[in-house]
Amino acid sequence: MPAKDQIYSTYQEKVEAFQFDDAVASVFSDMIKRSVPGYEAIITMIGVFTQAHAKPDTHCYDLGCSLGASTIAILANLDTKNCQVIAIDKSVSMAQRCRQNLKQVNLGNNYTVQCEDIREITFKPASVIVLNFTLQFIPALERLPLLTKIYNALLPGGVLILSEKICAENTKLNTLQTELHHAFKKAQGYSDLEISQKRSALDNVLVPESQETHESRLREAGFKQSQMWFQCLNFASFYAVK
Ligand code: GEK
């Protein structure tokens, strides 16, 4: 059983900006499952996309890997020979815990876990690149340069899976989706206090954008084909093929 997320359960005089520190890393598996509707379905599908797109003598990237849930889905579904999986997270606590988790699941040794900023890495030729709820933490102006680097790193037929919290351009729909997301969190056992304190902590840290913004940026980065293949309330995942 993963440790229960109780980080925002007691009243905080001043809620600090959200950080991926050790307190968060130690409960992250529980936190993300109870906060992101459809998270587990997306992880399963990352395995399916990997089976369809991973090619021999290439690399698969999990950018912003946290505890390695997507990395594990990739490794468990690699039928291809000589395909190296690279999991990257800039949080020291996340990268360390990810290494421990990967050792435990014992899915071979064709992977590395790197503690780095994904904006600064040099990509190797790739067939699968996963950004599962990570782009939303990158400053808005740095998102296109990162997606362009990703497009350039992908080989023809390679895939980017991009999952994000999104906002609706229609204000009424946006309010409704936000309310329903909070209702989802309450149904997962979070209190009103936890929901509102976490929301304050994420303000200006997690910056969501609309479906339209994501799709036009994917085009600008070079992707001619992309599709929003998943949506549950204000959480979505896109599939873009080079
Ligand atoms: C999952 N993908 O379970 N460079 C590297 N890592 C970063 C950067 C950056 N510039 N910015 C943020 N991160 C995972 C979940 S969580 C999503 C991803 C969430 C890392 C950050 O440290 C954190 O571990 C992760 O991106 C985002 O499938 O918390 O909503």
Tell me briefly what this model is:
The chain has helices spanning 22-35, 39-53, 69-76, 92-105, 143-153, 171-187, 192-202, 211-221, and strands at residues 59-63, 84-88, 111-114, 126-132, 154-165, 225-232, 235-241.
CATH-defined superfamily of the domain at 39-167 and 208-241? Vaccinia Virus protein VP39
Number of beta strands: 7
Bound molecules: ligand GEK
Head-to-tail CA distance between termini: 39 Å
The main pleated sheet reads as: 7 strands, mixed
Low-confidence stretches: none
Rounded mean pLDDT is: 96
Strand order in the largest sheet = 3-2-1-4-5-7-6
- Name of the top-level CATH class of the domain at 39-167 and 208-241: Alpha Beta
Please state the second-level CATH architecture of the domain at 39-167 and 208-241: 3-Layer(aba) Sandwich
The proportion of strand residues reads 15-25%
H/E element string?
HHEHEHEEHEHHHEE
Choose one word for the global shape: globular
The name of the CATH topology of the domain at 39-167 and 208-241 is: Rossmann fold
Number of helices: 8
Radius of gyration from CA coordinates: 17 Å
Instruction: Please estimate the helix content.
Output: 40-55%
Please identify the structural class as seen in this structure: alpha/beta
